[in-house]
């Protein structure tokens, strides 16, 4: 929102919320109905083109968003090395409003103007008119309108909303108040309406010009430079008629320079070209891929998780992924295509970049789904991908790599020990985060608790968690005699043996649960039972009268920057204990591995987490 919102700031369909697209439904239905029912010789295929153009624009913009986030996360050719936070994501979530507006106006023009009906596929004279009118009146009028928007009166009421984003993303290009968009549409309508009124319009002319505007807008706000210098060397005048991402990025950081739309010609004429444009352009081209200090290695969970990832839909990624949205079934073909791509591509990729004080963090993703981790035949392939990622991190000088989700599965690689044995000279330290997970769960147990019971799979974390509780004087019950004997053998004091017991009843008020907790077990729990998971994945909630805790996690301090997405099902600015453990190892420079049967000092890592500003979530 602008500093002092002016007249026509809000979009007319804002009250409709997520159902705003229904304003297009009557036009889409009418165009499809007419196309199907009317005679082949009389029906107007242009109406179908409008609908397809709107869908294409949505896809085109989303591709820019995903690619830009991928490139800036890697750091190569990044222009502005600053951070994006949730506030900006929330402000820019309605980027498709302008597509709805243009869609309505396209349908109106097609309905009322004969020159916009029954368009041919191609007309060269129409293309020529579009080019001339854009380079002339459109660029000229936009330049002076843009300068006017930077006058304090209009800036405070309208344009400051757009400039709230210092670090831009492709969708930043269309984040303006409704009133601004009306003017922009009027400007871009000059060449479009001219060819319509002159009878020179064609499908290629209309669609091509609209896609050109979208492409240039997205390019100018993508925050990474990719226009090769050789283009300007071979054709020097190009710098006057085509801008670069660097050029417009400076407008967002300097405010009073680089006003032109897509052609910097008028900035050169009127002396508003930023003097550092060329220098920043060359610097950005030379910017190398960033080498992080700490890497968190995770993996895909479900096929639809691609929409909830940071590289997917920004609005979904900024919210906890507790369930898939009903409308995602429409994208099933894209979901299936992405599954094929991940299967063929089969290489770890970067999805997120964060900064904690002076520590550079990245999140890498293995292109495998949770179901594949449960398949015996996938074990060797997945371990190979994990090992390749570890060796890649080693080559980049990474200090710590944490194994997230099922990448540390004991049945797969014994919590990462397999990779240490295969590569004994590794400098990068592998951390499975067990110590902090134990510390978080211990501190999540309500004060005054005297007994707990373990349910689900009993693993390394459960073992050390039970030992820690016994040492605190809490009665621990397990369901299998084998697990009880294992715990007794690891207890330092024989006096603590009486803290262990085998139980097959469900009356305990505090449950510590791992993977494999069944619905039947939950149904047997007494009312008010507190269920605290120590597993990577949360149990499915089947009881409304029980209290379910989230998976081990902590709230992050303000020092953690560039946080604009949620980690799976966790709330905003809450990270899993496994991921935080790697950050702490990097901050404290603990040069030790935590994998296999090894567990770091539980009290020491908990004290470090509190000291660095993390708090129980």
UniProtKB/TrEMBL annotation:
Q: Which residues form the Very-long-chain aldehyde decarbonylase CER1-like C-terminal domain?
A: 452-616
Query: Which InterPro entries did the record assign?
Result: CER1-like_C, Fatty_acid_hydroxylase, Sterol_Desaturase_Related
* Bilayer topology term: Multi-pass membrane protein
Q: Which UniProt keywords apply?
A: Membrane, Transmembrane, Transmembrane helix
Q: Name one GO molecular function term.
A: iron ion binding
TM spans, by residue?
48-67, 127-145, 182-210, 326-346
Q: Where in the cell is it found?
A: Membrane
Source taxon at top rank: Eukaryota
Tell me the ranges covered by the Fatty acid hydroxylase domain, including all copies. 133-272
Q: One biological-process term from Gene Ontology?
A: lipid biosynthetic process
What would be one Gene Ontology cellular-component term for the protein? membrane
* Sequence similarity: Belongs to the sterol desaturase family.
Annotated protein name in UniProt: Fatty acid hydroxylase
What organism is the protein native to? Helianthus annuus (Common sunflower)
